[in-house]
Specification:
Elements: E1 3-10, H1 12-30, E2 34-41, H2 45-53, E3 60-71, E4 77-85, E5 95-103, H3 107-117, E6 123-131, E7 144-148, E8 154-155, E9 171-176
Parallel strand pairs: 2-3, 2-5, 5-6, 6-7
Antiparallel strand pairs: 1-9, 3-4, 8-9
Helix pairs in contact: 1-2
Bound molecules: xanthosine-5'-monophosphate and magnesium ion.
């Protein structure tokens, strides 16, 4: 199955507004404290860059990145979660905020949470841009969620189909090509 860029689900303006709301919530919680924000590559790269800039200077923010793989080049979970790139610095005793693009089956964040808790952080919270509750196989508590969406494959604003379309500024539905031949 191949896809094309379908309708806009969330515009740049809607995303901007929601990201600044989330930034304010995070700022209130961590005002005067240290916070290590862990962006999950590659899907959360764009969201991460916007969310950290929405956090107030009163929070002492450090940025880290991890890369995990749970999906191949398709749209379905392989169930397995592999750590392809780990944290660079120790996080023991630190407040952690994991920033992820989307909570789908839940396996990626479930495993990641287990993995990070083993490192004995002072606290661990999760911020996702999107959540697809209909797809959940394992429950994961998230502390900040941008938007709840239906069970549709989405692209743009960091999200890809086979590495395509991460750079689109808005979030779109990925539309199967068969549904619109010749366009
Ligand atoms: P799980 O199933 O582990 O999946 O919660 C999280 C990862 O799945 C990918 N994913 C998507 N990527 N459009 C995408 O571009 C989607 O609609 C979508 N749904 C799940 C994503 O990489 C995420 O990190
Ligand atoms: Mg992906």
């Amino acid at each position: 199955m191949t896809y094309q860029i379908g309708e806009v689900l969330f515009s740049e303006e809607q995303i901007r507004k929601r990201v600044s709301e989330l930034g304010r919530e995070i700022s209130r919680k961590y005002c005067g404290k240290g916070l290590t924000v862990i962006g999950i590559l590659r899907g959360a790269a764009i969201f991460m860059s916007d969310i950290v800039r929405a956090i107030d200077p009163s929070v002492n923010v450090a940025m880290e990145f991890m890369r995990v793989s749970s999906y191949g080049n398709g749209t379905d979970s392989s169930g397995e979660v592999k750590i392809l790139q780990d944290l660079e610095n120790p996080v023991k005793g630190r407040n952690l905020l994991v920033v992820e693009d989307i909570l789908d089956s839940g396996w990626t964040l479930h495993r990641l949470k287990e993995y990070l808790l083993q490192r004995e952080p002072a606290s661990l919270e999760i911020c996702v841009l999107l959540s697809k509750p209909e797809r959940r196989q394992v429950e994961v508590d998230v502390d900040y969620c941008g938007f709840v969406i239906p069970d549709k494959f989405v692209i743009g604003y960091g999200l890809d189909y086979a590495e395509q379309w991460r750079h689109l500024p808005a979030i779109h539905i990925a539309k199967p090509v068969e549904e619109a031949p010749g366009r």
